[in-house]
Amino acid sequence: MILVTGATGTIGRSLVGELTGRGVPFRALVRSAAKGAELGCDHVVGDFDDPDSITAALTGVDRLFLNSTGVTAGPGEQPIARRQRTVIDAAVRAGVSAVVKVSVWKPRHGGKLALGAHWEAERHLRASGLDWAVLQPTGFMQNFVTGAALVTEDGDILGAYGDAGVAYVDCRDIAAVAAELLTGTRWNEDFALTGPEAIDHRHIAARLSAVTGRTIRYVDLPPDELAARLTGQGLPADFAADIAELFAEVGAGAQDTTTTTVRDVTGRDPRTFERFLADHADLLAVRGTEAASRSTGQSLVQDS
Ligand SMILES: NC(=O)c1ccc[n+]([C@@H]2O[C@H](COP(=O)([O-])OP(=O)(O)OC[C@H]3O[C@@H](n4cnc5c(N)ncnc54)[C@H](OP(=O)(O)O)[C@@H]3O)[C@@H](O)[C@H]2O)c1
């Protein structure tokens, strides 16, 4: 039995589809019965912040897909690290044999926000005695449809990436890799996941303009100006500075390389950005007609 956490999320929904297609037994962890019913698969209600519910959800589980959100402003540990430790400890107690965890591209000790939090969670997992597989994806193509990308009041893309390419990966490919690993025998490895090409944000803006039918620009700011702008839009100053620092790292080429991991694990090439756009044309077209007055960066502070 596999337990899929984060099952209602972007990767999770694709993974539910992958596992359903394979006919393997799994159950989804959801935060309400209504979400489970909407997902339409075997499910159990629980919350990372309620350890007893996680212990109950892990009954009879052999393999665990571990994914969670949670970067917050302010001092103290990021929720990702705390929650994932809770789940890993519960998995050990429940007799789970192996965990496939979603991490980030090049996590590091002391790294800002998710980079440091995932490094902590990875360290805990590697020391747990369980078998593990750690997925380390670059930025998600889906950020451009989920609202996770920073945008201006006019709906333009906002960043500090300069001309650097980013090898964005499609979450459906992350899910496909996870499904292979959860049903396979390849353990105790890191899997650095990228799309097939590194693309810069002016190119992305041009492609989004073509699909949405309205002009979307890429607004590039020096990191300090980006931080000031985010602060002006309501983010705490330290948090805005951390975000800008991470963006600047990407602008220095931190995510401009590709790997062959998706092909190596799944046997097929990762989806291109063009393919992603074509498959999400309906969503993007809706976005193109929406009033572009979204609240910049709110997805980054969301602690759901
Ligand atoms: N976005 C990127 O570019 C990027 C790049 C690399 C790595 N990552 C990593 O990818 C992960 C996010 O993946 P995603 O985008 O697929 O997630 P997502 O779409 O944001 O979904 C998050 C999932 O976690 C569940 N969840 C949230 N809080 C929970 C709690 N307290 N207890 C139980 N479940 C909870 C949500 O359930 P509800 O439906 O109930 O809210 C949802 O199913 C993060 O760890 C992030 O650091 C992101």
Features:
binds NADP nicotinamide-adenine-dinucleotide phosphate, two-stranded parallel ribbon, UDP-galactose 4-epimerase, domain 1, 14 helices, Rossmann fold, alpha/beta, 304 residues
Describe it for me?
There is one protein chain. The two termini are 26 Å apart. The chain has helices at 10-22, 33-39, 51-57, 79-94, 114-126, 143-146, 171-182, 201-212, 223-232, 237-251, 261-266, 273-279, 281-289, 298-301, and strands at residues 2-4, 26-30, 43-45, 63-66, 98-102, 131-137, 157-159, 189-193, 218-220. The model is unreliable at 291-304 (pLDDT under 50). It has a seven-stranded parallel beta sheet with strand order 3-2-1-4-5-6-8, with helices on both faces. Strands 7-9 form a two-stranded parallel ribbon. The protein is α/β, with parallel strands linked by helices. α1 links the parallel β1 (2-4) and β2 (26-30). α1 packs across α7. It folds into two domains: 1-137, Rossmann fold, CATH 3.40.50.720; 140-169 and 195-257 and 271-293, Alpha-Beta Complex (UDP-galactose 4-epimerase, domain 1), CATH 3.90.25.10. The structure holds NADP nicotinamide-adenine-dinucleotide phosphate (NAP).
